[in-house]
Please model this.
Amino acid sequence: MSYLELCNIKKSYGDGESKTEVLKGISCEIEKGSICVLLGASGSGKSTLLNIIGGIDNADSGYISIDGEKTADMNEKELTLYRRKHLGYIFQMYNLIPNLNIKENIEVGAYLSENPLDVDDILKTLGLYEHRHKLPNQLSGGQQQRTAIGRAIVKNPDILLCDEPTGALDYNTSKEILKLIEKINKKYGNTIIIVTHNDAIKNIADRVIKLRDGVIRKDYVNETKVPVSELEW
Amino acid sequence: MKNPLNKRIFREIKDEAGKYLVIFLLMTAIIGIVSGYLIGDESLKTAYDESFKKYNVEDGNFELMTKADKSLISSIEDEKVKIYENFYIEEKTEKISSTVRFFKNRKQVNKVCLWDGELPKYETEVAIDRLYAKNNELEIGDTLRIKNKSLKITGIVALSDYSALYRNNTDFMFDGVKFGVAIVTEDGFESLPQNHLHYSYSWKYNNPPADPLGKKAIDMGNDFMNSLSKKAVITNFIPRCSSNAINFAGEDMGGDRVMFITFLYLLIIIISFVFAVTTSNTIRKEANVIGTLRASGYKKSELICHYMAPSAIVLLVAAVVGNILGYTVLEKYISSAFLNSYSLTTYKTLINATAFIDTTVIPLIILLLINFIMLARVLSLSPLKFLRRDLKRHQRKKAFRLNTKIHILIRYRLRVFFQNIPNYITIFAGIFFASIIMVFGIMYSPLLENFEEKTVDSMLAPYQYVLKVPAETKTKDAEKYGAYELKTTGRDFVEEISVLGIHKNSKYFKTDIKDDGIIISSAYADKYSLKIGDKITLKESYEDKKYTFKINGIYEYPSTLAVFIDIDNFNKTFDFDKDYFTGYFSKEKIKDIDESLIASQITKDDLTKTSRQLEISMGNMMNLFICAGVGVFMLVIYLLAKIIIEKNTQSISMAKILGYNRREISKIYIHTTSIVTVVSLLLCMFITHKAIIAIWHAMMMEYSGWLPPEIPIITYVKVFILGVVTYAFVALILQRKANKIPMDEALKNVE
Model:
């Protein structure tokens, strides 16, 4: 049985003449512990879909079920608890708290979990241990994104949602970040959903879902999955 | 695990040290002043209440025409009272224009409280009242000169039966400048001129009434007076319940409590809004972080607490420091206002739990409540809105249009104005509040001076005498009048109204009084908003009998709440003999009536005692009001205008890149605030005037008497100039802040 189930998700913005249908009935299933890449051009609806999965946006119709729990039935408080318990978020912009140091930023994530991972371990895994007392503005973009990843994974979430995690990074740093995501998936077994417009990234996924104009154009299991180290674009 | 976000609370305070320091200082000062007032007031009131037992204060005193012999004393004591001799000699002082009442040291009743030095031991020594000494700059070691005699001051004292220095119980106001009390030795007393010796006796009931000011006390006083009058010739009789010298201070203490607390709470409300607006600005800046935290599972309540914490901590620390200052420095300062008015006994500063609740707990609740409402509203937006930095609840569908014929800089400025309307509304509210405080501080002295001038100009006669018993005079132009005291019939507040019976065609009262009606003083009309044609009902002081009068006119007499009635009508209304009268109006001094028959002489000094005393008591406090007003003004404008600059940092940076010079940028971002400030100040002058009149009126309704709130225009001009000058200083800081914004600011943080 699938871990994450999306059933006929529809979403539109605006009304009347200016109404735009962003998602036109998305249905799919994602296995536990897999890496899923949501691929699509700008405006294809991939970020909206990720936000609906993450419970920070609502679908107009359809439902999402995680491990048998439907998010549509939840009120705001329950949704907050759901995110707190199950989800980790990584954004294109790192959104770190500027006046907390690197370790403290990761602790902000740890605080949300009843069984957080060891913060120092995470810092070491992310290669940030020696920078742990620095403030975010003293680090490079890649290091900041690694911190954001640390903040998301420290609570050991069931699902890690990554919205264009390499969008603001150069090639080498992007690969470094993807390697980390791969490593985390292997080490902790989280389900990872990556939203990206970078076609190459699909190669590291177990599952690829291609969106265009709010509908799924392709949804397939990647039989030729490659490690990040072999990825080129 | 402790919430790691807590670690940034103190960093946030440190990062915004300037803002929090200014708020902290202002809050500390205001809380300190209010706390000082509440602590001082309560400590003095407690000492005053305890003084009755500690110094064995009398249940009343009376004066006899001649000295009572042992048998008379014994006969009086049969009325279930204990009698104590409390003779005094009243003498005018030389060099200082005043009258001093000399007593022998009291050992049993109305005991003396020694403030400083020591009680006199020798015939040529004296201990004088603390307030009288202070007002006349007399110190221990100085000499007090009376007729052919010099007395060396050895001590500074307070007499427990003279907490307010009333020379006569019928005086309109106490007078600690021109009247004092003093203690001398028995020999010293004998050596004083004996022609002004008063045979005054104090009494204590064997079974005193439970409430010394209650109806039973009044009845006991009346019964005792009736019995006493049958045994001796009384020239004066003052039961404790009617004694202004004993009761006035106690009744006055605590009177300004409501005003101080209201002042504090209003300020806390303004500061709370300032905090709410500045915190909303921080939230706007940190929108993406908040979005991430909310998306990660942080609860709204956790973030509300987090963002409320800095303001709550600053207020809490300010309250603690303010209370410490309140208990130490400021309590002394505030108490001095009371000690400058009243001859109180020594006191100890007491721990006051109510003051803590009023100055710490309630302000904290107000702050938390206002901030909670504002923050809960902002943080109720979805995490997605925060991530998109879209914090508007209702998105405007189209930008409103501005006429393109308007110069671009003006349109730009208008956009800045509309973008920051909430800030400007808070600025307006802050200016309004600050203006009220400043006007209050500045208007005080001119208001009192104006009252004095008007009072002197409208005096009924250069000399006005109140007689103990009717006596005739041959003084030219002397005119008889009748006087009686009635009380208002209000439910919560009752005060005395003087009823004056005036002769037809009076030389002193320049309006005819019709037989069927009365004329009231302008003070009475203003205070109770009375007009011609209205009817008023007054009642007897100690009976339920009521009188209703129709107002036929209003007479310009600002110093006293008075009713003028034709003297024949007066005697008929109050059941006096046809020829009864109480005193004389005269153009010159009356010399042919024995001084012992004169109860009091109402002079210019008497009528202006109120304003003189208020100037002494409250004058210093008014400077605090001006400082507090300027502080609030500066704080509110600076913090809110700073937000406007911060909010537009990128736009300012971009304008610089485009080539706008400093003057143009200042025109757009700072001049808009300047215009709002100046217009708000002007508008506030009108609204403040209305508000002050209303506040003053409400305040005076708590006091006996009336001071007309005539505020000269110059007061508003001064407040306006003070406001503009203060703003100019703030604008200079804002200008520097805008100048410092680097051009590369526009190129970073573009998300």
